[in-house]
Amino acid sequence: MAQILLLNKIAKVGLDRFPEGYVCGEDIANPDGVLVRSAAMHDMELPESLLAIARAGAGTNNIPIPKCTEQGIVVFNTPGANANAVKELVIAGLLLASRKIVPAIKWSSTLKGEGDAVAKLVEKGKGQFAGPEIEGKTLGVIGLGAIGILVANAASALGLNVIGYDPYLSVDAAWGMSRAVKHAMSLDEIYEQSDYITIHVPLNDATRDTVCKETLEKMKDGVRILNFARGELVNTPDILEATASGKVACYVTDFPNEALLDQENVVTIPHLGASTPESEDNCAVMAARELRDYIEHGNIKNSVNFPNVSEPRTTAIRICILHKNIPNMIGQITKIFADRQMISLKVGSTADSTQILTSNLQGRNNIWGPLFRAFGEESLLTQLFGAGLSFNDAYGLAGFDEHSLYVKIILNTGYVGMLLWVAFLILIM
């Protein structure tokens, strides 16, 4: 039985992806997996039973990634699941930045009680809220991932000239990008040419304060900036100084803080980017699928701390090894199996074969081509768990029923004076 801890409310359509044999709840002491949206996990004690965390969303700043990596816990996110929702709000943000819609609405509400004079007052006062059209203007998109590509394509369709910058542009993203979108070779091109700039990059040490006093000086006077990625990508004191001076005509952000509230030329939205029922459903379904595929098959897809390793399940036994990228590490492990006659090398696939998948921490992955033939499930388990431990005992130890087994073993192995960890995930279906 697999246990999934819910740290936030997760859409039912996602939880329905877990079959019989899974228990999902908010009060699980020793979970195999965690589903989370925005709950902070940095101060949370991670139980030894925990195999994986799936974030129903793109950002993972609320999860202690280094700590999880050291403990062999795979962290997933759901890139693209909320992309359309965010894209639509960014397009709305372009209009909010141009047409002074928010202050106009606030002003209109002050006319309450003026009776028949409202119409004349509206005509008299509307001039103070005039703003430019977006057609024909230049939009710079920083970050061409799932959301950035959709924003770039939609803006191009609305008649903007779009330039995008992403030094890590993937082949899949490039295929999805409109031919009308120009690919900038540097951030300076974005800063110098854009009337509007929208940011769609993850928050890390390299991207923090992407918009700051230094970069603002490179931008056009009257530039309009949109931030629907992470608040810390824009330096708050610097952006407020720029909006006050007129350097920035408007700043629209989905990440309010105390200093930004009720400031002229600043539009604060209460983190509504992914707040659509469709987006929440998409994220929940994708996160649940990732957890289940890892727990049942050891496959890794969309992890933020381990490389992708995915193979169709073709054998009765699969051993997944998570390891630090140390020379001869895999060789040492497979030698242990061979020396104890737990498995023998055999090319091809048989009903009682063993697949070995490996994933290391330095960005490279290795899916073993040869399949290994086990000398029987009981022999394999006896070698792993020690003499005298029966097959049924092993099932009880793992907490699964007679149809599946999932065990995580941590081995400490010395190599060139270093202490290494190797996590074995043994799946027997």
Tell me what portion of residues adopts beta-strand conformation: 15-25%
Low-confidence stretches: 342-355, 358-429
SS class = alpha/beta
- What would you report as the Rg, rounded to the nearest angstrom? 27 Å
Largest sheet: 7 strands, parallel
Globally, the shape reads elongated
Q: What's the number of helices?
A: 14
- Calculate the mean pLDDT score and round it: 81
User: How many strand elements?
Assistant: 19
- Give the fraction of residues assigned to helices: 25-40%
* Order of neighbouring strands in the sheet with most strands: 8-7-6-9-10-11-12
State the distance separating the first and last CA atoms: 13 Å
General description of the model:
The chain has 429 residues and is of the alpha/beta class. It is 31% helix and 23% strand. It has helices spanning 12-15, 65-70, 83-99, 101-109, 118-125, 146-157, 171-176, 187-193, 213-216, 236-245, 277-297, 329-339, 377-385, 391-398; strands spanning 2-6, 22-25, 33-36, 52-55, 74-76, 138-142, 161-165, 182-183, 196-199, 223-227, 248-253, 266-268, 317-323, 343-346, 353-360, 365-367, 371-374, 405-415, 418-428. The strands form 3 sheets. A 7-stranded parallel beta sheet has the order 8-7-6-9-10-11-12, with helices on both faces. A hairpin with a 2-residue loop joins strand 18 and strand 19. Residues 342-355 and 358-429 have low confidence and may be disordered.
